[in-house]
Design a protein that fits this description.
Low-confidence stretches of chain A: none
Structural class of chain A: mainly beta
Number of strands of chain B: 0
CATH architecture of the largest domain in chain A: Sandwich
Low-confidence stretches of chain B: 252-256
Distance between the termini of chain A: 58 Å
Helix content of chain B: over 70%
Largest sheet of chain A: 4 strands, antiparallel
Strand content of chain A: over 45%
CATH class of the largest domain in chain A: Mainly Beta
Radius of gyration of chain A: 22 Å
Strand content of chain B: under 5%
Number of strands of chain A: 16
Oligomer: heterodimer
Radius of gyration of chain B: 19 Å
CATH topology of the largest domain in chain A: Jelly Rolls
Strand order of the largest sheet of chain A: 1-8-3-6
Largest sheet of chain B: none
Number of domains of chain B: 1
Distance between the termini of chain B: 53 Å
Shape of chain A: globular
Mean pLDDT of chain B: 85
Number of domains of chain A: 2
Chain lengths: 261, 295
């Protein structure tokens, strides 16, 4: 039996080592991947240190959905600032700051965001270290009326759900301090896809909303700092009971939840 | 056979402690760099199998005698595989139930996790779970550790090793501890009864294979028929384990022939306490993370 066991272990090694090498190889398994349909911005981090240096800029002539997929094999953390001329819908300000660490395999940082017309700029801060940052960029036009609807929500007119969605919950956040407090629950008798939209206009304090179900959890689908609008989130859910839970501390404003079943 | 042919409880506990420390530290560092599949292979080969083989080499133990690398009869092999399958259908709803209870009573861990893994990593995980883990973990837990504890109590040695095996799985999550203890007891009993770790390797492999193939059935909720299947599986498991016989044809000597009465030394107790502090700390951190106290 000893011979059999060691034979199996050796065969496993013979099969496994190429798989590990393959996984580390950028051209095959892991490393930085090519994403079809995206333009490519590669910035080496080995040439110099940068301090908020512009690495990409474009002018959006109309409301546009921008997809960013970012990978890094740099040893040091790279900071990316993605900023717009206008306030970004769902955010309190006009920029995203991403801290990009080295990621293995197919993993990466992704950002899908609707931007209004104007300049879109990506700035980078990094220490000089071996490696590179790989940014894949693509854009697709957004529907002007949809942009207008979301702009209204962003400006505090929360009662603007998409077509087919109905209100299930409306909460005044002022003076409400809670942790994982269920504010709405629904039960599915069979597996199905539902749509959910959650909006808040909170300007101060901290709040977030989680969707918790049997084995399926979505955390901070809405949060006060970076994402105050969760619009038409499509969830493929198993049967069971799901709760929309609120975390709130010194927040103000309103919270609206809309569902489409 | 002389006493030196067997691992002592001190050696077993020391190996367990060193393995747990290295595995924990290494996994924290390597998973983000190499991915979960490659990390699993390093854990199994380097931190679980290698220490057991090194101990055997240093002490001049024969793998066939000390770690019970012995053939088993076809009947015991089939019973072992069926035991592994039955054990999975029994313990998986229990694990899910514990998870749900922890989620409801303590809280949910908010982790980013891996959004996806490459095909290579997936294959490494599959081979690692179904082939490597059974061989490497059985060599350490049933080969070295159980053998050491059987020298304290031949009939109950598998219980100590089974509990240590279960507690070690706290690194996979608190929810896995109790089910893994049950699995450890099943695998340990198979090794004890057959006088070989071949059966426990087969049972372990069958159990992990079921986890991969059927795991998605209870990923989000426990179907009502699964509760029924769990009860039937428990009955089947007990009947199957009762059907195991020592393979006198293939194995010289039985568990009853081995030395007993080895005492727990001070060092053995110290290593056991250190190990428990380490693994239980991981459990406490998880509970704190669930409660939102620790990020």
């Amino acid at each position: 039996m000893k011979k059999t066991v060691f034979t199996i272990l050796i065969i496993c090694l013979v099969a496994g080592i190429p798989l590990m090498v393959l996984d580390m190889n950028p051209a095959t398994g892991g490393g930085l991947k090519t994403l079809p349909g995206h333009s490519k911005i590669v910035v080496g981090t080995n040439d110099k240190s940068r301090e908020n240096e512009e690495v990409f800029s474009t002018v959006l002539k109309a409301p546009t959905f921008v997809d960013l997929y970012i990978q890094s094999d740099s040893k040091e953390t790279v900071t990316l600032e993605i900023s717009s001329d206008q306030r970004i819908i769902g955010k309190r300000d006009n920029k995203y700051v991403l801290y990009i660490n080295k990621v293995p395999g197919n993993s990466g940082y992704s950002l899908n965001q609707l931007f209004g017309p104007g300049n879109l700029t990506i700035r980078m801060t990094n220490e000089k270290s071996p490696g590179k940052l790989d940014i894949r960029y693509s854009e697709r036009p957004a529907d002007a009326s949809e942009y207008e609807r979301l702009s209204k929500i962003d400006n505090g007119d929360l009662d603007n759900p998409p077509e087919g969605y109905y209100e299930v919950c409306r909460i005044d956040l002022s003076g409400l301090n809670c942790n994982e407090e269920p504010v709405y629950s629904f039960t599915l008798d069979s597996a199905q896809t539902i749509g959910i939209s959650i909006y808040t206009d909170t300007e101060q304090g901290e709040m977030s909303v989680d969707i918790i179900g049997p084995g399926t959890n979505f955390f901070a689908v809405v949060n006060s700092v970076s994402n105050r609008i969760c619009d038409q989130l499509q969830l493929a859910l198993d049967k069971g009971t799901y709760e929309v839970r609120l975390n709130s501390e010194n927040a103000d404003g309103q919270l609206y939840v809309f569902i489409k079943k | 056979m002389t006493r030196s042919s067997y691992p002592t409880i001190t050696q077993a506990n020391m190996t367990y402690f060193i393995m747990a420390v290295l595995l924990l530290v290494s996994s924290i560092i390597l998973i983000p760099i190499l991915g979960p599949g490659t990390n699993l292979w390093i854990n199994e080969y380097v931190y679980i199998l290698l220490p057991a083989l090194l101990m055997s080499r240093i002490n001049g133990w024969k793998l066939e005698d000390t770690y019970r690398y012995k053939r088993i009869s076809s009947k015991n092999a089939v019973i072992s595989i069926l035991s592994g399958i039955s054990a999975w259908f029994f313990i998986s709803p229990v694990a899910k139930l514990i998870d749900i209870l922890l989620n409801e009573s303590v809280g949910i861990i908010k982790t980013k996790g891996f959004t996806n893994i490459s095909i290579s990593q997936g294959l490494l995980l599959l081979l690692g779970m179904v082939i490597l883990a059974p061989i490497c973990e059985e060599t350490l837990f049933r080969g070295l550790i159980q053998k050491a504890y059987e020298s304290h109590s031949s009939k109950h040695g598998f219980i100590y090793a089974g509990v240590l095996f279960g507690i070690f799985h706290i690194f996979n999550g608190v929810k896995d501890v109790l089910p893994a203890i049950v699995l450890g007891l099943v695998f340990g009993y198979v090794a004890y009864k057959t006088g070989s770790i071949a059966g426990s390797m087969l049972a372990h492999a069958a159990n992990n294979f079921c986890a991969l193939v059927f795991g998605s059935l209870i990923s989000s909720y426990i179907p009502s028929w699964f509760i029924f299947a769990g009860i039937i599986s428990l009955i089947a498991l007990i009947l199957l384990l009762r059907g195991l016989k020592t393979d006198a044809v293939h194995n010289e000597g039985t568990p009853a022939d081995e030395p007993t009465g080895q005492k727990f030394t001070k060092q053995a107790v110290i290593f056991l306490i250190l190990s428990l502090i380490l693994v239980l700390s991981a459990g406490v951190l998880e509970i704190l993370a669930r409660a939102g106290i620790f990020g």
